[in-house]
Amino acid sequence: MPKKKIKHIDTMPVDLFEREHRKEIEWRTEQILGNGPYGDDYNDAYDAAYEQAVEEIADSKGITLL
User: Fold this and answer.
1) Exposure of 47 in the CB half-sphere (CA atoms within 13 A)
2) CA-based nearest residue to 61, from 19, 21, 7, 28
3) Inter-residue contact 52 to 26 (CB < 8 Å)
4) pLDDT value at position 1?
5) How far is it, in rounded angstroms, from Cα 15 to Cα 19?
6) What's the per-residue H, E or C state across the chain?
7) Burial class for 53, CB neighbours closer than 10 Å (0-12, 13-18, 19+)
8) Sign of the C-alpha dihedral, residues 15, 16, 21, 23?
9) 49 in Cβ contact with 35 (< 8 Å)
């Protein structure tokens, strides 16, 4: 039997991407946050870092998020 060629994925819904790359996104988010003093702004800082991590990882993999 001939081997099937794996199709390269270049677009993906954001929720599917986040599920498939959860650990990598969480790790990168923590790196972006660092040990800064956030206080009451922690949730906003985390959300911004998470979005940045998702975009960076998608870009590094050549995936356009839908």
Assistant:
1) 4
2) 21
3) no
4) 54
5) 6
6) CCCCCCCCCCEECHHHHHHHCHHHHHHHHHHHHCCCCCHHHHHHHHHHHHHHHHHHHHHHCCCEEC
7) buried
8) positive
9) no
Mean pLDDT of the chain: 86
CA 66 to chain centre: 13
Tell me the per-residue pLDDT of 36-65, one tens digit each, with 9 for 90 and over: 766 778 888 899 999 999 999 999 999 999
Contact 49, 32 (CB under 8 A): yes
As a whole number of angstroms, the distance between CA 34 and CA 7 comes to 37
Instruction: List, in order, residues 6 or more apart from 25 with CB less than 8 Å away.
Output: 18, 50, 53, 54, 57
- pTM, two decimals, is 0.78
